[in-house]
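Subject: for your reference before the review

Hello V.,

The reviewers asked for a structural picture of the protein, and I figured it would be easier to keep everything in one thread rather than splitting it across files. Below is the amino acid sequence we used in the manuscript, unchanged from the supplementary table.
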Amino acid sequence: MRIGLYVFEGGLAGAIAAELNNRPRKIHGYRTPAEIYAEILNSGDALIL
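And here is what came back from the structure prediction:
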């Protein structure tokens, strides 16, 4: 069963996003997606439009 995020209140959807973005991932060497994103932004390799 698929449930769209529109079903959740704004605060709950934000809490879910924060939980997922702050969860370490094995594929990232047990760093969080937020840490990877910050590293890319600070490296100078980020695509600037």
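For the response letter, the relevant points are probably these. Residues 39 and 45 are 9 Å apart (CA to CA). The first helix runs from residue 10 to 21.

Happy to draft the paragraph if you're swamped.

O.
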